[in-house]
Amino acid sequence: xxxxxxxxxxxxxxxxxxxxxxxxxxxxxxxxxxxxxxxxxxxxxxxxxxxxxxxxxxxxxxxxxxxxxxxxxxxxxxxxxxxxxxxxxxxxxxxxxxxxxx
Length: 102
Hints:
By secondary structure, the chain is α/β, with parallel strands linked by helices.
């Protein structure tokens, strides 16, 4: 998964395609557990863009998305939030939420 910057984030908001954003921090243990799960799902599901955003580098974007804890995953379609969750969830649960975006 690609780490994005503020400009890339703004471009994703204008995307009609589904986007999964993993709001994470380098010091976060659960983030390190969730990341490989999202990597696996991104390899299995076509048509959805998976990206990561470091909350320590972009606190204003995290705040605008109501991120109070990490990891927080926000799923967008057409620039609109369709789903969000905090913490680590089972791969099957996350994959079902992702495929619902299509």
